[in-house]
Design a protein that fits this description.
single chain; 403 residues; alpha+beta; Creatine Amidinohydrolase, Chain A, domain 1; Creatine Amidinohydrolase; 2 domains; 11 helices; 34% helix
Length: 403
């Protein structure tokens, strides 16, 4: 039996868990204000008049406000010069002010009014009669369409040049929050593996993973749990599976701490690995390591993908995205969103910078047999890459109990 897999129960593992949030510090108001100032510098450098933020993780990033997207416009405008302005339905203004951590300018719209016109009116009030508005990439079409009609003296541009430039390089405070989220999720991974037994279902394991994150103080982000042949599919299959001896097990999970994400995948065998399972698992580990070694300051993001993919192709898989092989990019940025800039994919020439955080997960998919994905998150320092969590140790001891 694979070390660290089986031998316990959901009830026993939940009883062992206690909150892991001691010492956590939220993002400070000073840092939020510095983010707005950086956005304003970029707006001026790019000749843009303002950045519109919709109800999105970018709104959270710049203001600390976290709201759910609805049909009612709720957001903020960062002008190239001057103070940030918050936008709110009139009846929600008191709640909006409760959420605000800095600033005091709130503009409102009534139920019968066009909220898109409020964005334009706000810009004109700030002294801009024309120019270009950078739009939060997560803005719904109905708001963009409304802006086209209400602000025909303004051009609209993709705000990614502002939001991604700010968000893809993490501060020490962000990295600390992500580290805690990763630490919590690693505890959950080990506990989930210990709970496995023949006859358990994927849905039972998923329920435990959510409960465990909550018990440890994190907000669960959901989990993908796959057994046997279903592990060959990167995003799972639309039906539950029941575990049997010899199955490959793939568990991809994460949680939130102060809005910041973890994302870790472990793949191992329930029982004794076959020679074929051992071969592919070891190849996956080598590919992940090659991706990590390619992550150097100044290297293009695509170098991480090329490093990992090269190992897999050299073993006879692929080439490119062909299956059996690696059918998707090697990694993605992560922070407030599980998938964000910058992506580790062919063609992405973005230079890697200290503070970037990204997954390295060159999954090997063999439809009809099984798949193996080992996913850990790296962050780049001036000296090179570092792991938030230690990668899998071996196919026989994936969690490193005997290291």
């Amino acid at each position: 039996m694979t070390l660290g897999v089986g031998g316990s129960t959901f009830e026993a593992e939940l009883a062992r868990l206690s909150p892991m949030l001691d010492g956590i510090e939220p993002i400070s108001v000073t840092e939020l204000q510095q983010r707005v100032e950086k956005a304003q510098r970029l707006l001026n450098e790019q000749g843009l008049q303002a950045l519109y933020l919709d109800t999105s993780t970018s709104l959270h990033y710049f203001t600390g406000i976290s709201l759910k997207l609805t049909e009612r416009l709720h957001g903020a405008v960062i002008p190239a010069k001057g103070d940030i302005v918050y936008l709110s339905p009139a009846f929600e203004e008191p709640k909006t002010r409760e959420y605000m951590r800095f600033g005091d300018d709130v503009r409102t719209w009534e139920e019968h009014e066009d909220p898109s016109a409020l964005i334009v009116e706000t810009l004109r009030n700030k002294g801009y009669e024309s120019g270009t508005i950078a739009i939060d990439p997560a803005t719904p079409f109905f708001t963009v369409d409304g802006l086209r009609r209400a602000g025909n003296r303004f051009d609209l541009a993709d705000g990614r040049s502002i939001t991604a430039a700010c968000r893809q390089v993490k501060s020490p405070a962000e990295i600390a929050l992500m580290q805690r989220a990763m630490d919590i999720s690693m505890v959950v991974h080990k506990a989930a593996a210990r709970c496995l037994c023949e006859g358990v279902t994927t849905t039972e394991v998923q329920a435990f993973i959510d409960q465990a994150h909550r018990k440890l103080g994190a907000v669960p982000a959901g989990a993908a749990v796959q057994f046997g042949e279903a592990t060959a599919y990167p995003h799972g299959v639309p039906y539950p599976q029941t575990l049997k001896n010899g199955d490959m097990v793939l568990i991809d999970l994460g949680g939130f701490v102060q809005g910041y994400r973890s994302d870790i995948t472990r793949t191992f065998v329930f029982g004794e690995p076959t020679p074929r399972q051992r071969e592919i698992w070891n190849l996956e580990k080598a590919a992940q390591r090659a991706g990590f070694e390619a992550a150097r300051v100044g290297a293009a993001c695509e170098a991480v993908d090329a490093g990992a993919r090269g190992v897999i192709e050299a073993a006879g898989f692929g080439p490119g995205y062909k299956v059996p092989g690696l059918p998707h990019r090697t990694g993605h940025g992560i922070g407030l969103d599980v998938h964000e800039e910058a992506y580790m994919v062919r063609g992405n020439k973005t230079p890697l910078q200290p503070g970037m955080c990204f997954s390295i997960e060159p999954m090997i998919c063999i439809y009809g047999e099984f798949g193996v994905r080992l996913e850990d998150i790296a962050y780049l320092t001036a000296e090179g890459p570092r792991w938030f969590t230690e990668p899998c140790h071996s196919v026989d001891d994936p969690f490193g109990y005997e290291v």
